[in-house]
Amino acid sequence: MIRVLVADDEPLIRAGIRMILTSAEDIDVVAEARDGREAVETARSTAVDVALLDIQMPVLDGLAALAEMARAAPRVRVLILTTFGERDNVLRALGHGSAGFLLKDSAPQELIHAVRAAAAGNAYLSPAATRHVVDTLASPAATVRGEEARRRLAGLTEREREVLALLGEGLSNADAGARLHMSEATVKTYVSRILTKLDCDNRVQAALLARDAGLEPSAG
């Protein structure tokens, strides 16, 4: 079983998340927290695999709780679940090692998939969250940033550039595969190769580079 901690200051939100997650036979919500401080203490004292943290919480907000949890309970994988996608929030979440960034209007199955991915040690950013984050961060880029992005993309093959362009649009591996007539596994291989070549830690960073470089999906 994947043991989950849900932290949100709104009881109805916690109840809704619990209902969604416990509908999956391999997930159990073992603890809840009403604020970031309580979430950190619970993660430290309870056997938890994945923590879902809201950003806007009293006492200690979700991002501060994420930073403390990384030190106090490094075994716990943290997913940020929020309606907010501002630049500073996203950068802090990624910088402190968040395993994923989900919007609260994500589909229930997407939430379940994200928890499973985090528990397996993978990073997860839903297509909706990726598009939201990219649109937030990739404001009209300065010339220097665009030039740097194009320089980093210069070492990619044409096929890798096609895959990266679709990441920039927020497509999942499955959707990108359908667009390019490739299997999802093949797209996953390309994504791993792209992240290595670009020295990016995750899909969001790669997507931002694609947007800064002005990389657009091919018409075909």
TrEMBL record:
Alphabetical UniProt keywords? DNA-binding, Phosphoprotein, Transcription, Transcription regulation
Response regulatory domain ranges (all copies): 3-119
* UniProt domain HTH luxR-type: residue ranges: 149-214
* UniProt keyword annotation of Transcription present: yes
Xref: CDD domains:
LuxR_C_like, REC_NarL-like
Q: Which GO terms describe its molecular function?
A: DNA binding
TM stretches of this protein = none
Residues carrying 4-aspartylphosphate: 54
The name under which this protein is listed is DNA-binding NarL/FixJ family response regulator
Q: Which organism is it from?
A: Streptomyces calvus
